[in-house]
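Researcher: Structure for this, please.
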Amino acid sequence: MTLSKLSLRNARRQARDYLVYFVTVVLAAALLYAFNGLVFSTEIRALSQSMATLPLVIVLASAVVVCVFGWLVSYSTRFMLSRRSRELGTYLLIGLESRQVARLFFLENLAVGGCALVLGILLGGMLYQAFRAIVLTLFGMAYRFSFGFSLPATGLTALYFLLIYLYALRKSRKYIRKANIHDLLYLDRRNEEKAVRTGRKRRLIFIASILLGVLGTALLMAGNLSLGLAGAGCIILFLYGFFLSFASGVPAFFDRNPARKYRGQNLLVFRSLTAKLATMGILMATVSLIFTATLISEGTGLVFQGLYQGRSAPNACFDLFIGIDDEQQSFEPYLEYVEDNIPVEDSLLYPVYCGVDTDIIDYLDLNVKFYHYGIEQDMVMKYSDYAALRAIAGYPEARPEPGQYLIHCINYLEKALRQYDRTLTMGGVALTPGGIRTEHFLQQYSTGNGNRYLLVVPDEAVINQPVHHQAYAAKTVNPVSEEQYQALSAINQSESRTNPMGWDAIHTRANEKAEVAAQTALTVFPLYYLALALTMTAATILTIQQLAESERYRRQFALLRKLGMDRREMAGALRRQFAIYYAMPAIPPVLMGVPFLLNLAKLPEPGVMVGVHSPAAIAGIALGIFFLVYAVYILLAYTSLKRNVLPDGI
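Model: Predicted structure, token format:
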């Protein structure tokens, strides 16, 4: 048999024996191709000017993902080399030269990578269509399936894979060429040595690692870059210290508590696990660190998505809105452009008035976390303008009773303002509170409809009140295009140069939605891209380690069956081993990641992170996504091991 045929046979066997690894590499190729397709898509870049930076962002994210997958392939290659070392040593015994064995191992792994690349590109074409549909939906565009093959995306994906495999196989090829027969025959018996050998040292490291974990989590939640970096360092030290001391401390715990050792199936479960975990401290810590990064990446993506939507939605209530805070500036340039270029169904040019006191601001400062950004007065609108604006925005009528005023506020102020019962005297008229409205009403800016809240009073009450600013709102026949928005922004810049003290606010519903879509694509997509790559990599390494023990488990359970253990007990023991093995690296990330995400989601101003983007929801969704992907690998590994170890279908 020639080396080429032997390489192909071994490649097929490797893909079969390490199916989870092969599938992960295929998915890696699919992910890389799909995101590379976005890089080279002129259709995606044409959606918005903000999308011009998408290729750069994805290439940077892909560079990190390539490093992650490169580590996966490198680790898996070294692991398979150690598992097949006796076979490779036998090749030397029968007369093959070291360079021939090295070439054999190199070619078979390259064949596996090449096959995974081809399948991944085919799958990536479908995955690209899914990403394309998501992006188009974000921009409110209709999706139509169109099969396409991107040669540049294929070339870039192939380049990534070539770099990954050349890096991964270089060390293995070099080792095989230098190794002697003895080294290869006994390589599979080498294990990671225990890093902590004495009980006292183990206890000190364990206690120190727990303290570092608590400190690191607190520093990550501090909201400061320098403290955050220090916190990340503490987290890394915690994970490695914890797993090195914990894994080596399990046998000592059972030695001190023999009654627990022999209770139920503990001896079987923990003897099998400790034999593995005691020499896997560094690997478990690395996997746990990856899971921590995964959870934080997923949660951060959700926080950004909630931040973009929460800040944009209040400003997208009108098809077109323009606000001017300088009495000397004119609306004429804007109105002339709108009249000539933007068909309008309904519009209103109106003033927003100054209030008579600061009672509500003082009340809110005492009762709620209120951000009023230096504006120390109420803003008031007459009812006729308010009614017209509600009609333009598409809201139902809201009319106060005679002698009353309305408060229109952003949602997080509603609870506090419902307790506000002071009478407002304006224009010689005494007005009592008459209700609260919380629809989106563009209340985030000094030139909007109030500073987080607005008082709506009868028209006659504002006759002698000074004007705070003027604004223009319109309901357009068609959505305001990006070109029209840019033209209005050019007028804004021209007016600002003429009068630097003035500041105009321009908002369109279409532009707000486009900005959210672009920001989501530029930040959330890469974060989830990275999170998925990290999860797949760590879960695959854990699964490879577990499935590699199939033969040992088979012999172990065959012996236990002869000793009288029934099938139900063996299946239960296998499930417990699986649960503990896969739970250990996942528990620390949950304990650290959830508090971090809860704190991160609370950093934006009140009223932004609400609903599905509330802190608790974000932590829950991030955990759900993480464990969903993780569970797929656990299920695949358990099904495979159960079939091999318990062949009777237990």
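Researcher: Any notable elements?
Model: Residues 498-502 have pLDDT under 50 and may be disordered. The beta strands are 320-324, 344-354, 379-382, 404-409, 424-426, 429-437, 453-457, 467-476, 504-508.
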